[in-house]
Design brief:
- By secondary structure, the protein is an alpha+beta fold.
- Among the domains are: 105 residues, lipopolysaccharide transport protein A fold (Sandwich), CATH 2.60.450; 137 residues, no CATH class.
- Helices cover 51% and strands 27% of the residues.
- The strands form two sheets. Strands 1-2-3-4-5-6 form a six-stranded antiparallel β-sheet, with helices on one face. Strands 7-8-9-10-11-12 form a six-stranded antiparallel β-sheet, with helices on one face.
- Helix 4 runs antiparallel to helix 11.
- The relative contact order is 0.10.
């Protein structure tokens, strides 16, 4: 038996390495500086100095996408040139086993596949985290940049804000004041309130590489579409919200450890946590309504109070609204006591409801009365509608609501439920299921792509020999077409895996591209190359 051709192996290693290095450098520069990766962030929200620092992060990041392509091209070009120069004919005539000449290709494919797996699962998510940290390092500057945009600043999914001025105080680096503000409050992309505020004060903090803000608005004047009237308020709190930064918060930007965590605990993901928060509030509303009805059934009267006001309400009838929007009372007599002030209110109909708010504690309880007569003992005033509140909800109900576990929240309503509860539960269940599907799809996508590099490099080398691909365009086509097929199958499968109806088929599609290329490897090595 002839000895292993080390000299020839070293020669192939050298040619492969040279072509691989030059191709990787060229593609990384083009892909990184040319905008392929830059388009993943919002360049309108960065300063020139941030852009310069960003490039130091983006070039290594771009390498994660270009190294597999460079490996394929170098294999096709190197083995194609050797085939065109009849080097393999000479090797076969010398009795050298053709398969031993693929050792450099195996090493290159393992190197490229391993690097791809490490980059996509750890380095690239870390780069995006560093990029996000850089963009939020100066939170005040980020807020100013977002206010300068035509669409204004976005606070989570709830607020859109425009302001004439943004003021910061060096003594309070974690706070910013917005002056002369116009705002829109949203509920699932639907405008529910819009108006102006004299001032908005925000306090921000960084949590898990995200910028979260909370604060309050002062001097509000807005139109409430649900109530159908203009409202003046002295002050309104802003619950913790996330500010939109340069990188969207998606599963594709998580590292492998984080993906495995969210697979085990999908309710921790921000979308599922948001919908679970809405479900918790809805369950809390039902607790409030049941407590009111139970109180009324004792003597057909209810007392609702907090630190500032007490309402004593008597009604001939009471019942839960069909869609769960509140408790409806008929033929109402109400006494309001606020400090030394006392007045009596009669109404044909009253509804106790929990208005919008991120949590039960922030929402309170509101009374909406129809066909109203107000009396302070000296003067009677008739009105078509009167809105009282919000009144703080009792701490006992808030504590009971916060004590519910995720599993308890997701249980079907005990007894007659209402539409809002059922819808909130369905949304929460779907958000948890969608998070699990996204995590599994992302893990499968990265694993399939990294493993496909191994079989694609071998296929590119074999096709380079068969087609004598010494010409650069021939080598490019030989290496790019199989890669394009694999990427198309992975991308298609990833989108299918996001939907519950096509989840299983999507996972099969992700891995089918790898299976097809592996079969082509076997066929070309055992049949085509031998001939």
């Amino acid at each position: 038996m002839r000895s292993f051709p080390w000299t020839l192996q070293r020669y192939i290693f050298r040619e492969l390495g040279k072509t691989f290095a030059l191709t990787a450098i060229a593609l990384t520069g083009m892909f990184g500086l040319g905008g392929g990766v830059l388009n993943m962030v919002r360049l309108g929200d960065v300063t020139p100095s941030q852009l310069f620092r960003m490039m130091a992060l983006l070039l290594p990041l771009a390498a994660g996408f270009t190294l597999p392509i460079a490996a394929l091209f170098s294999a096709a070009a190197t083995y194609g040139r050797l085939s065109a120069d009849n080097e393999f004919v000479a090797c076969r005539s010398s009795g050298i086993n053709m398969f031993t000449l693929f050792v450099p290709t195996l090493v290159l494919s393992l190197l490229a596949g391993g690097l791809s797996y490490g980059l996509t699962n750890y380095m690239i998510p870390g780069m995006f985290r560093n990029l996000d940290e850089m963009l939020i390092a100066d939170a005040g500057a980020l807020i100013r940049q977002q206010l300068d945009r035509p669409r204004g600043m976005r606070l989570g999914d709830k607020y859109r804000i425009h302001a004439d001025d943004c003021v910061t105080d060096p003594q309070y680096p974690d706070q910013v004041a917005l002056l002369r503000v116009a705002f829109v409050e949203l509920d699932k992309a639907k405008w529910v309130r819009f108006g102006t505020a004299r001032e908005v004060r925000l306090r921000f903090e960084r949590q898990s590489n995200r910028l979260r803000v909370e604060g309050w608005m002062a001097g509000l004047s807005y139109y409430d579409r649900k109530v159908g009237q203009f409202v003046e308020e002295a002050r309104q709190s802003i619950a913790p919200q996330e500010i939109e930064t340069g990188v969207a918060r998606k599963t594709k930007f998580l590292n492998l450890n984080e993906l495995l965590h969210y697979y085990a605990h999908p309710d921790d993901w921000h979308e599922a946590r948001r919908d679970l928060g809405l479900l918790r509030k809805t369950v809390g509303k039902r607790l409030v309504f049941d407590d009111i009805l139970a109180d009324w059934k004792d003597d057909q009267s209810v007392t609702i109070q907090d630190e500032s006001v007490r309402y004593s309400l008597q009604a001939d009838s009471a019942g839960l609204l069909p869609r769960g929007g509140g408790v409806e009372f008929g033929n109402v007599q109400l006494e309001e006591v606020r400090g030394d002030r006392r007045r009596t209110i009669t109404a044909a109909r009253a509804v106790a409801e929990v208005p919008r708010g991120d949590t039960l504690a922030l929402s309170g309880l509101r009374l909406e009365l129809r066909d109203v007569t107000l009396s302070d003992g000296t003067t009677d005033i008739d009105r078509a509608k009167e809105v009282l509140g919000p009144i703080g909800i009792t701490p006992e109900i808030i504590q009971r609501n916060e004590a519910f576990s995720v599993d308890e929240l997701l249980e079907p309503p005990d007894g007659p439920g209402f539409e809002e509860w059922e819808n909130a539960r369905d949304h929460a269940l779907e958000a948890i299921a969608r998070t699990t599907r996204d995590v599994v799809g992302t893990v499968s996508e990265r694993a399939a792509f990294s493993l496909s590099v191994f079989v694609l490099v071998i296929l590119a080398a074999v096709l380079g020999i068969v087609f004598r691909g010494s010409h650069i365009m021939t080598s490019f086509g030989i290496s790019f077409v199989p890669l394009l097929f694999v990427l198309l199958m992975i991308a298609t499968g990833k989108q299918m895996a996001r939907n519950d109806a096509t989840y299983g088929l999507g996972l099969v599609t992700i891995w089918s591209g790898l299976a097809v290329v592996a079969c082509l490897d076997y066929w070309t090595l055992t049949r085509v190359l031998r001939r």
